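Entry for the shared binder. Reason: the reviewer on the internal report wants the predicted structure included alongside the sequence.
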Amino acid sequence: MVNYSAKFRTKDVNISIPDTVYSLESDLGPKELMNLIKTILKEDNPSVDLISDGKKLSFIVEGRLLRSTLIDHFKNVDEEEEPESNVISPEEKVLTIEYFISQKSPKPINSCSTDDWISCIDTNDEAIINGCYDGVVNIWRFNKLDQVISIPAHSSAIKDIKWIPSRQMIGFDNLTDDDYFFVTTSNDETVCLWKINLIAEKVEQIYLYKGHSRSVDCVDIQDGVFATGSYDKLLKIWALFDKEKLSSGGDEKEEGENDSKKLKYNNTESGNNNNNDQSCKVKTPIMTLADHTEAITDLTFIRDSNDTSTAGHAPTIIVTCSMDNTMKLWDIELGKVDSTFSGSKAFLSISYSPLTKCLISGSCDRHIRLWDPRSNEGSIVKTVFTSHQGWITSVNWSTTNENLFISGSYDSLVKQWDIRSCRGPIYDLIGHEDKVLTTDWTNSKYIISGSADKNLKIYENEC
């Protein structure tokens, strides 16, 4: 029987063991390795069970999650990735095996039906919000998932949607704990700012933003401004509100300004489309930036892990991705492109993690890439994740675990990944019957996905 020499390492100081070389039999698998770790920990702390019942350990061996015995693990290595020449066999070297408390499989808890394809999703602590191809916004409260607030928001498909953190709405007075704001972008070339009281279910359209000449496909928000990207190839920056104080009660308003239209929507009530509503104030962009040669498909602000409502003196950086096969980093203060990264096919989605300070991207070549924009040596692409069989339409980092992210694809699957294991996802989240168009993991407790099957799938996630 083949024996392997190995050292164990972990970032979890509570379950770390001595840096010793161990001789491991080749027929050991995850269960046996976990028992070995528990035995070693018991030797130092006989009265303490550091790995409690119900928890399991995962192991990364040679860049792959260990799912079998060690010998089978190495038999399954792709020969194209490790040709026979110039390769040291596993038994001829000291392996480094990383271990950590396993992430439990996300648990499906609900499925919500809509009237059209679901194109975008965002969540906060209270509710899920989604946009559909019929121009309707749906809001689902976590404590009342069987009830929906539906808002006919645009005359054409809603392409992106974002809740606005309440701390950023400093331009509005007299807000209650039940008042929330969100932004919608649409194929009708407009952007709208909305206010909703979730208890009273009263919706108020605050602003209508005009300036793009094609579909507005993406939006992100930071520090009183937001950015949009469009099929017109342009990146535009907008102010969330006027510099002067606004009163949400309407006691103070500019001369000639009409009262904002307040509507309460439900499943049976119809309302006028916002583009025919002349009561809300129309706003124009404060900055327009051009460098992409094809449509901008997604964008994100670069945020530090200790980001607050005040940005300090740090430069405002936005990352955009495009159908022109590039990602661009923009310095908004200077109004120019700082860096350009090229890919092999059109990019469809990006996500930035303040925990790792890295980007992940999904594209039409079916690959997910991990990028480190700070890298000064070698390729800035640090890892490639391959498993999906269709275009990758959506990627989202975990907001609490620096190693985890999710992806959604035209292959109807949502996958959960660990960046320490690039050769396959840790879980496939199944249930959709058509292509997945959007995913969200903003609320760490829930993984949400939307599809062309008109269903919103909600998975409870172990934080």
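Summary line for the report: The two ends are 40 Å apart (CA to CA).
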